[in-house]
Amino acid sequence: MISMTACVPGMWTYLKSMGAPVSYIGWAFAAFPFGSWLASMYLKDAPLAGIKSIARRSDTEPEKRGRVIRHGKVGKPFSRGMYAFLILISIVGNCVYALAPDPIAVMGGRVLAGIGASAIVLTHKFIEFSTGGDESMVRSRMVMFGAVQATGAVMGLLIAVVVALLPAVSLGGHELTSQPLAALVVAVLYFFLLPGVYMTYDQLAPKKEIIDLVDQVKGEIDCAPSNYMSAQRLGCLVPAIVYERGQARPSSLPDVFSTAVILVVYFLCNNLIVGIEVAHGPLCTELFGWDALDISITYLSFVVAGVIGIMLSLCLSDEVPCNRRLFGGLVLMFVTYGLMLQPSTPKEQYIGFLVIIGACYAVCDLSITEIHVDKIGEEDDPRITASNKQMVMGWLNSTATFTRILGSIVTGYIYSYWSESNHASRRPYAVYGCGFGVVLLLVMMTIIFYKRFQFRSLENMVQPPDQHLKPQVINCHETVINVPAGQTPQ
């Protein structure tokens, strides 16, 4: 997580020093999630060393010389050598980024760093299978793992702030500014991590009997599957919280239509955040004359505001339904973007804009994940339900990954177009106007589908008070019937 965020704030100043056009910033941002996505596509289905199968497979599925066919794919188990190799790729990627002679090398270094950072998927699997199938332990450990990842994202930005305070260092005739120094710090951290991972992998890898026990007790692991670097900004913290609290549960009736709507809402929300992340560096440099230090501090406030938004949402989740939290977050974002539609923006107002948008997005992210899980649908077999969770949450991850890659590139070109001399005067309206239009669309969608965004599981499990069964009232009255003598009572 540190490698993902440490080089983000000052990336534009680094590219600008090489003479790169502003459109390159989008490609540089997209490089890391693209490399992470490439590696995650294989890592998420690959077994660990000593484990024949993590994914469910039939007993009649063939095996050939230690290689296992899983869902039509053939793969080799991962060993500690592969784990160490991924860490080496991270070291090489950060060194390439630090010593890059041109913008293309900068992008190549970020791709390699993303590939190496995807080794965290294997760490996710270690945690899943270290619990012996205890569901409560899995969920609590995944929340702790998400908290560590969120802390890593913040620590990466703190490193960016610290190195921005340091003077440039000369290394072999190559002047290292804040960005190369940040990348080298990450490479050193990976270097110290390498021997520890290599020597303790055998002790961490779960044994076959543990895997068999977990498979017998739970089948598919029911925990947050969205732990791929290409998708999440704070790791698996948000989905892990949703699973651990147990508020969003699969309903008895699947709702495919609401799931599709949620994916569209999530796609548009992520586009807003991607646009802010990509345009933050060039915008602050050109409008406010900020350097890498100022950009790093404000970007840190943007991420910390997201953590605060998650805490705020957790405080409200017991009292405020998820559809109301989603609607309230979007309305506040709509108002904030509307206030930014002006020819010039004071820097104090822009910092407030970052804080409000960062917190509101976290509130919406948590609400969307809750609704998304609730719409999956519950099957008779718990294994099938868990498998459906993995699949549907995979759709949410793919949506976020696609947005971070494609949205970054498109944002770079849009900002480049409105930065030309004949369009520069209308750039604030273009930058904030796009976000304003997207949020307006999101608010309208939330109004239209407001009822759809309620928890179906609560509707099915809890009856309204007026539909409760009332106790049967039996009135026993002593009745005296006088029957004339000689007649039989009817």
Helix-strand blueprint:
Elements lengths: L1 H4 L5 H7 L6 H20 L19 E2 L2 E4 L2 E3 L4 H19 L4 H15 L2 H9 L6 H31 L3 E3 L2 E3 L1 H27 L3 H10 L19 H9 L10 H32 L4 H25 L5 H18 L7 H28 L7 H37 L8 H22 L7 H6 L29
Antiparallel strand pairs: 1-2, 2-3, 4-5
Helix pairs in contact: 3-5, 3-15, 4-5, 4-8, 7-8, 7-10, 7-12, 10-14, 11-14, 11-15, 11-16, 12-14, 13-14, 13-16
Question: Could you explain the architecture of this structure?
Answer:
It is a single chain. The protein has 490 residues and is mostly helical. The chain folds into two domains: 1-214, Growth Hormone, Chain: A (Up-down Bundle); 246-462, MFS general substrate transporter like domains (Growth Hormone, Chain: A). 65% of the residues lie in helices and 3% in strands. The protein contains 17 helices and five strands. It has helices at residues 2-5, 11-17, 24-43, 80-98, 103-117, 120-128, 135-165, 178-204, 208-217, 237-245, 256-287, 292-316, 322-339, 347-374, 382-418, 427-448, 456-461; strands at 63-64, 67-70, 73-75, 169-171, 174-176. The strands form two sheets. Strands 1-2-3 form a three-stranded antiparallel β-sheet, with no helix packed on it. A hairpin with a 2-residue loop joins strand 4 and strand 5. Helix 4 (80-98) runs antiparallel to helix 5 and helix 12 crosses helix 14. The longest helix has 37 residues, at 382-418. The radius of gyration is 27 Å and the shape is globular. The model is unreliable at 47-77, 219-223 and 461-470 (pLDDT under 50).
